[in-house]
Predict the 3D structure of the following.
Amino acid sequence: MAAPTDNRRIDYVEFNVNNIEASKAFYGKAFGWSFTDYGPEYCEFDDGRLKGGFTTLGTPRPGGALIILYADDLEAALSSVESAGGTIVKPITGFPGGRRFHFSDPDGYELAVWTKN
């Protein structure tokens, strides 16, 4: 049973991907995530705070809810995303309370990264 503090919080995120190894390479290089393989069709990722999975059992469906990551250094995160092969789809822009950019991963999922400063 989950701890009471986990009630109604994001617990897991799952991506349908074309190639698990390519997804591991991208997110490992861009964000330093670690991975646990559970056979050829499923891999769990761990960003140190939240876990999720990559699976080839479905068709990639870019869109839907926007997953937003946090970075202390937004410019360094943008550089890591580009270096890992991601595509910047919205450059760094400010908003009340911080700044963020959007990128797409190798399967076309759009995510964002934000910072407070």
